[in-house]
């Protein structure tokens, strides 16, 4: 449905390369009329993000460390300056856990890396939503989408502390939906099945996970980033005007199965 986001202003966090779910969502938003700003984390991926952003004529590409309140303040001020004080859409596709904590036992996770994973993967949504609120309120409301995973609801071997972080993220979506609903701001999550992204490759046994997924999901097929983009476009559009605090599963039905 072309034009659903005509005139809308969007900020997308979490693009790493063209295989990123965040990029698929950003491209979908742009294709349907949105003007999209981007953040990137670190010099290593800056070139990739800038090239992708240029392909959709983005007016803003800026560095962002979600662990820094000062950095987030700067980013959202830049967004306000770029978009005349308003924002309609926020896409949060940010998560991190140390590689060694995605290999061994969850019980062995050290305190500092536990809090690192929760800070980046869960609290960053809260921090971004707080700063997006006045910009969205200035536009009469808005929509926020974040990316989660079934590992926040069930124990998935090797997902470990990231699963705990996703559980915190899932709960944050519901509390944010309540808080921000008074400003007509909706907050939802997409729970995706295994997608071959840069982040996914850091999970031990990912290829085994993919094989089991295809065998046991009711639709017996893999999903890709474009499937997530289609779901995000719905949740971020006016077609979902009364959908908030919800997790939409894009996993070929895998979440519905008991084994």
Structural key phrases:
42% helix, 259 residues, 7 helices, alpha/beta, 7-stranded parallel β-sheet
Task: Set down the secondary structure blueprint.
Blueprint: E1 9-13, H1 21-31, E2 35-40, H2 43-55, E3 61-63, H3 69-82, E4 89-92, H4 111-137, E5 142-148, H5 160-181, E6 185-192, H6 206-216, H7 225-236, E7 247-250
Parallel strand pairs: 1-2, 1-4, 2-3, 4-5, 5-6, 6-7
| Largest sheet properties | 7 strands, parallel
Strand content: 5-15%
> Rg to the nearest angstrom?
17 Å
The helix/strand class is: alpha/beta
**Low-confidence parts:** none
Major beta sheet, strand line-up? 3-2-1-4-5-6-7
Per DSSP E runs of 2 or more residues, the count of β-strands stands at: 7
Task: Provide mean pLDDT, rounded.
Answer: 94
Order of helices and strands: EHEHEHEHEHEHHE
């Amino acid at each position: 449905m072309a034009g659903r986001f005509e005139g809308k202003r969007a900020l997308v966090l979490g693009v790493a390369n063209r295989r990123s779910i965040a990029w698929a969502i950003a491209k979908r938003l742009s294709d349907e009329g949105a003007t999209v700003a981007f953040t990137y984390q670190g010099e290593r991926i800056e070139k990739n993000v800038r090239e992708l952003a240029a392909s959709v004529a983005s007016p803003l590409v800026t560095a962002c460390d979600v662990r820094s309140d000062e950095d987030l303040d700067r980013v959202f001020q830049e967004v306000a300056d770029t978009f005349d004080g308003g924002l309609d859409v926020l896409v949060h596709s940010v998560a991190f856990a140390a590689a060694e904590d995605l290999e061994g036992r969850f019980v062995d996770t050290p305190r500092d890396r536990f809090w690192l994973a929760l800070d980046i993967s869960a609290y960053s949504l809260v921090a971004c939503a707080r700063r997006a609120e006045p910009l969205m309120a200035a536009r009469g409301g808005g929509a926020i989408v974040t990316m989660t995973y079934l590992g926040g609801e069930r124990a998935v071997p090797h997902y470990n502390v990231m699963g705990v972080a996703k559980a915190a993220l899932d709960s944050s979506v519901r509390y944010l939906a309540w808080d921000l609903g008074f400003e007509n701001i909706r907050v939802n999550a997409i729970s995706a099945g295994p997608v071959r992204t840069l982040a996914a490759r850091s999970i031990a046994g990912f290829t085994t996970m993919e094989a089991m997924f295809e065998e046991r999901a009711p639709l017996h097929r893999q999903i890709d980033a474009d499937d997530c983009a289609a779901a995000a476009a719905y949740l971020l559009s006016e077609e979902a005007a009364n959908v908030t605090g919800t997790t939409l599963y894009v996993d070929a039905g895998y979440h519905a199965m008991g084994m």
